[in-house]
């Protein structure tokens, strides 16, 4: 059985670079791949699973995508199951065309609006809009509040001071209507709310909050073939950083430093041998962008592209098989975030760009049910949480990438109830396996699932190496495993001796080189 598994998986990895799709080329927000393969040939279908509390747009817990010549078929989606339920039962009666003042023009005009529909506003000539330029339909109605139209608007005084934070730029004496000001929090403080406030007819919109006592980390993961050159003392607090430097004959891919953000490290860089960087595939649909002369780009090569109907060029650079800026067509901005019932005041008139997030803070004596952040996607706010009165019960446990809870998810958990997490095949659990409901909150953050490393015949040939032990034919190695290599017959070591005993580190394995 082991021999058969090795042969089958090896075959999977021998497809030419241009005729396959890689797992690393796509990510699923609120979901994960339910199969363990890392590469797929053309026209191969791949299944994905939604995390607990999320479903596909058609209401199922799983879906599929296909490897095409242009890359993976459209991005898989997992949406909040509560949002889906509201879509199913209230979609046609949720919002009606609002009564607005005579000088305010609202478009598009319809009798009924679906949850998620956006209404845009403009004022008649020579009048100024005071308030948001658009609102969105939610299960609780239109939000935020509608704008008004005025002939004259007032200026604002300098912006207010922020406790444990400050204005990013040098303040002015006078601010005009619609001017924006951005805030930053002091070191080791986490921002909740909108980082920008706006002058609206003489008044500033609400300030964000800078919160202390955020989660700390007591260690940083080891980065092979590098050394720490700058670091604050352990434990590491919010916004503390650790800087790495790479050894001779190695190149660092990614940011040279990592930062602690609310108890989690930003992604580690990767140290690879100087001649190892991989190429990138250009995967945008040619119907969406102007055609390019090629579809594969070298490491450090830059691509310029323009979406059809647009005038502005977009740019991205290939960094070791990944684009440093996601390749995507122009997407619509979102209207100002909604005022969620029983949440702290979220009044703002600022629009947000695709991918931007806003944290939600419930009023005192209410707890959040759902995600703590809402995300702007394709002109609409996604995963809207709710602020509910605590009953001592806990909402559904937090979801994790590449893993799930072992029991059927409930809408609410009584105090004292526990849930256990597990990772999908070959992934290693890091953190508490079990969390418990206590006073309406879970006892600790959920664990993480660390990715395995995949070794294929193609990779071995590329580096002119083989497994040291003839009986060892490991296709997958779990995080923490050490793998020993030797040069192929007739080749000699090009990289130092210690590189021939790499350790799998959350899906990353640094291969030695022979020449």
Automatic annotation (TrEMBL):
**CDD domains given for it?**
CCP
The record lists its disulfide bonds as 156-199, 394-437
One GO biological-process annotation of the entry reads: complement activation
User: Which GO cellular component terms are attached?
Assistant: extracellular space
> By its UniProt entry, which Gene3D superfamilies does this protein fall under?
Complement Module, domain 1
Lineage top rank: taxon: Eukaryota
Name listed for the protein in its UniProt record: Sushi domain-containing protein
Q: Does the keyword Transport apply?
A: no
Asked if the record carries the keyword Disulfide bond, the reply is yes
Keywords, sorted A to Z: Disulfide bond, Signal, Sushi
What terms describe the molecular function in GO for this protein? Answer: complement component C3b binding
| Signal peptide per UniProt | 1-20
**Domain Sushi, first and last residues per copy:** 19-80, 93-151, 154-212, 332-389, 392-451
